[in-house]
Amino acid sequence: MKDAVRAISAFARGGTTAPRTFTLVTKIENAEGQNIYSSKIEVPVRLEAIDDATAFIVHDMMRGSMERGSAAGLTDMLVEKPFSGAGKTGTTHDFSDNWFLGYNGRVACGVWVGFLQPNKTIYEGAFSKDLAMPVWADAMNAAAKQFGGKVIPQPESVVEVKICGVSGQRATPYCYETVIDPATGRPRTRSAEFAEFFRKGSENLPFCPLHSGTSNVDSHSAAVGLAQLAVIDSTPVRSKEPVLLGEDPYFTEQVMLEGMERQPTRSSTNVLDSFDLGDGEKPLQFAWPKRLEILPE
Question: CB neighbours of 145 closer than 8 A, spacing ≥ 6?
């Protein structure tokens, strides 16, 4: 456990671990307040495990696990808000050991749940998220008052880039994806853009070829600029009812076959799919038609 906590602390310290030796007891006093033991204070020896860019990128990955992965819901348990640290679950294949390791800007903490007897299962389906993570959250909440509040900064060796979640390339203004709204069961569009961190010098990715209309240019070249992407100055009208006959370029209709649980995915994407009109609708303004005149033959 000590080695694990020391190792994970490197992600909060820019690649430098916690001291190689831990001091668990600094002094002991008797009932009269007399000091009967004092530990020797030594200069801490730390390891330079990784560079600050690697440390921050892995740190960001673990934060993603807190938002949409195995540690989802952790931030709701913590009193430190905003919580700039991160944590990661761990469960052995036979459910005999649970781990949760994490840190904030000042302290690292690890929790193990299991039996001292070897090969003894806690219970089938005993995951760290349910057992070790709540204990870890309680420990961090107890430490928050004295050891909280420090933000883990982004180092200068790392840059943030907007990435399209569909193609994995640099996002454009047209990068949207179609998903099924769980509340209504109907398809809706949302931005496919998310922030990703790169080591400085490795962030020069090409723009997304799926939503930008760059299929006729070298999409693997990072030299393709926004000026070469498809530009449109109009937005589509979203239909409320099935009205189209033939091809459906705006993805307004869904084909559902009997027995299918989800909509089929199209092989191509139109750039007009990239606009989410939202729930608000602006009425179209049409001029009143002129009086009908019937002229004699």
Answer: none
Q: How far is CA 277 from the centre of its chain?
A: 25
Range of the structural domain that residue 181 is part of: 157-237+250-276
CATH (domain of 82): 3.40.710.10
Per-residue pLDDT tens digits for 54-94: 999 999 999 999 988 899 999 999 999 999 999 999 999 99
**Does 244 reside within a domain?**
no
Least Cα distance to 5 among 122, 83, 95, 112 occurs for 112
Name the residue with tokens 């509340």: 183
Tokens in use for 163? Answer: 């990435």
pTM for this model (two decimals): 0.66
The count of structural domains within the chain is: 2
Task: Assess whether pLDDT exceeds 60 at residue 107.
Answer: yes
For residue 259, pLDDT over 60 is answered with no
> Hey, what are 146's tokens?
């004295």
* Residue 82, CA distances (Å) to 69, 85, 100, 133, 293 in order: 19, 9, 20, 18, 70
pLDDT at 220 over 70: no
| Helix ranges (DSSP H) in the chain | 2-8, 52-68, 74-77, 128-147
| Token digits of residue 20 | 């190689």
Q: Token pair of 44, please?
A: 């801490």
In a domain, 45, yes or no: no
**pLDDT band at 244, cuts 50/70/90?**
low
Sorted by sequence, the CB contacts under 8 Å of residue 18 that are 6+ apart come out as 5, 6, 9, 46, 108
